[in-house]
Amino acid sequence: MENRLLDLNASSDRLPDIDLPVDFFAWVDITPEVLGWYNIPCKIKAGIFVLCTDGELTATINLKECRIRKNHFIVVAPGSVIQFHDSGTDFRLSFVGFSSRFVGKVNLLKSTMDFFPVMIENPVLPLTTEAAGIYKDLFSLLHRMFTGDMLIHPEIQRCILESLLYGISGMYKKAESEDGNRRLSRGEEICKELLRLVMKHYARERRVSFYADEMRLSAQHLCTTVKQQTGKTVADLIAEVVIMDAKALLKSTNMPVKEISISLNFPNVSFFGKYFKRYVGMSPQQYRNS
């Protein structure tokens, strides 16, 4: 199993990229020995859902250190940077993942619109024993489907992913309502408001000055705060959302590249192509054909 779990692509001048070798992957009882390979920061290209079924461990997800314990549910969105640290005790994880290629066919952005900002800020969710038991049973069932002789049609895989997203959306909404009394720091409030505005306006606006004006902040203050809170620039956060939608349109529709560039408010298809290649490493058409 270990050789099939994740594909690692590393070079000396960039973070190792981790993806899945198949579109859909499910496994139970992942042990410390497996995750021991990833004790350096790695960029996750796949969409990954994890349930801690026993013990505890520490991980850093998008620069935030998280203590993961039994019955914690972890959402690792594509593009996340993660690093596993030494675990205090033996732990066991159940794992369901979808490759970057498959996620690109599903409009993940629109599926997670309501809770995407919260998911990025809080990738670890504590579950009740009952809820954790339900997800443990689900992951076990998906594991049996993956390792058995059953052919899992791509549409079934899509339904599994969308079902997980709907369930996770409900969990985040519940957690947010229960945590409503926690007072956010000013920096957290700024990042949360920025993500909300980006989700609303990304198809029309990519200027940092626009979001700074909407939030009644100077562009410098906004950029400094976001960098301190997330480790990313405002432009990079905007680009992540734009590129996620562009990938979904390229993979899940037959829209010409020119129409996609227009729908995302690029001045021309050439500018869109350069923007896309800057963040993805290939042209939109190459990505569609890959």
Automatic annotation (TrEMBL):
Keywords: DNA-binding, Transcription, Transcription regulation
Gene name as annotated: btr_1
Pfam families given in the database record: HTH_18
Protein's name in the database: Bacillibactin transport regulator
SUPFAM superfamilies (UniProt xref): Homeodomain-like, Regulatory protein AraC
Listed GO MF terms: DNA-binding transcription factor activity; sequence-specific DNA binding
Gene3D superfamilies from the UniProt entry: Homeodomain-like (1.10.10.60)
Domain HTH araC/xylS-type: residue ranges: 192-290
Record's keyword annotation contains DNA-binding: yes
